[in-house]
Amino acid sequence: MNTFTTPPTSSIPPNPGTSGIFLTLNSYVLDTVRIILLGSLMEAGRKLFEWLAERFTFRYAVSVEFNQADPTYPWIVQFLTHHEVWRRSKSFQIGAKTSRSRLGVTLSRKDKPLADYIPLYDIPQLFYWKGYWVEVRCDRQEDKFSVVDQPKGRIYLSVFTLDVSIVDMLVNEAKEIYLSASIANVVIHVADSEASLFHPVWNNVKRKARRPLSSVVLREGTMDSLLYDVREFLGAEAWYINAGIPYRRGYLLHGPPGTGKSSTIYALAGELGVDIYTLSLGSKFVDDSYLHRAVSGVPSGSIFLIEDIDCCFPSREDEEEEAVRLSRSANNRDQYETGMKQPKSQVTLSALLNTIDGVCSEDGVLFFATTNYMDRLDPALLRPGRVDYKLEYFLTSQDQASSLFRRFYPGNALANSAPADSEKPATPSVIELLSEKFGAGIPPNQFSTAELQGYLLLHKEHPVVAADGIEAWVKSQLVSREERKERERERRERLMAIYRIDSREREDSGSDQGSASGDSGVVKIEAEEKAEGLNSN
């Protein structure tokens, strides 16, 4: 019987040989080529789709662009927010709730949300509006020089229609929504420093609660006269055109600090329903070209406000200090050239005058300026055609003080503040008596409205205490003022002493420079000792 033995199976795989290696590599190469070709086809398809979409949009859609530097930008922002276009976005930037206008939506159901959710606008949104499809997309431009957390750029709208008038309807509706949303607020556009390198100027937008005209306590007839003049001007455009007179009007509000100049303008803007564009000439980034660019962006039907316009002109105190500084630096030319004091404003008078003329030439733009020091202003600034209406503000009279008291404390104020066993009934007549007592305790033309308001805020729930304590408060304030005046008088004496001694030094050095060097040093030491003695006092 024959026996067959099966050879053992080896665990080592057989050598594939050269042909097996080639087939394996060929398979890898083919798969890689297929993936590359598939990716290329997909990218080409995407490019083709984008090309076709652009051609379709170009042929069958009307596209518009809104630049952030333009006043229409917040209109369209409010429009998109009203229609909740960006509510479906999945990427947000969270910012604390402030008075600044943002491209934000409110996701919270609270009446006063604590944060704004700002979409990142990285994906175009499509929405339906009055029978038309509208696509919105944003171009975010990162600004490495910007310190503001709000993205900048442009908003693009594409309305799929061939009727251009539909875009006009959309813009008009956006403006109506913007105005209705702002009716309870005064919109303030502030020129920002970031615009010194880039085009946007009025991109810093804030909102303040609208205040009634009656909340600004002025002398009787002051507010009514100003409001009448402004309304008459705004309604007389046709008359100006027919008469061939430039449609311009400037207003200057001048008077002591804290008398209500700025409050008047804010209340007036709320009453008229117009925006305020405000610029500070004392800002370091504001120069002649910046001022011209800012003014060119103020739209018609707005208020252009320059607060403290006198900062372009030096004060007496600045002139005295500058005279002393130049006197002490006269013997050292290098020190004089390197230590020159920078002016408060980089805006020149000629540029300011040309700017005011340019603003007033814009139809319906109201130019307002405020100053605490009327005597510092150049006469060229005050001529008719630049400033047509001057309104002087005064320190508080006794009647104003009584009116301020009545505004602070309505008729039911005593019901919440008086003790239960009080014999005084909680009636408006009692408030009237307290207001008269408060007004009688105020010396006329001695205190500003802001100072009295600060005092009343300390007793905002206690009108009786406020009326009883006004005389003691007035006495303490008058004593503090006398002390400040004395310190200011001593400061001026020190400056004049230094100026006289330095003048004597130069005279002595001119006659006998050798002998005068020692004597002038002694005199200078005496002046410094005198100044130190005044400082210690």
From TrEMBL:
Residues 511-521 have a biased composition (Low complexity). InterPro entries: AAA+_ATPase, AAA_lid_BCS1, ATPase_AAA_core, BCS1_N, Mitochondrial_chaperone_BCS1, P-loop_NTPase. GO terms for cellular component: mitochondrial inner membrane. Residues 247-397 form the AAA+ ATPase domain. GO terms for molecular function: ATP binding; ATP hydrolysis activity. Residues 500-537 are annotated as: Disordered. It is a single-pass membrane protein. It is found in: Mitochondrion inner membrane. Residues 36-216 form the BCS1 N-terminal domain. Residues 500-509, 525-537 have a biased composition (Basic and acidic residues). It catalyses: ATP + H2O = ADP + phosphate + H(+). SUPFAM superfamilies: P-loop containing nucleoside triphosphate hydrolases. Its main location: mitochondrion. It comes from the Eukaryota. Keywords: ATP-binding, Hydrolase, Membrane, Mitochondrion, Mitochondrion inner membrane, Nucleotide-binding, Transmembrane, Transmembrane helix. Belongs to the AAA ATPase family. BCS1 subfamily. This is AAA+ ATPase domain-containing protein. The lineage of its organism: Eukaryota, Fungi, Dikarya, Basidiomycota, Agaricomycotina.
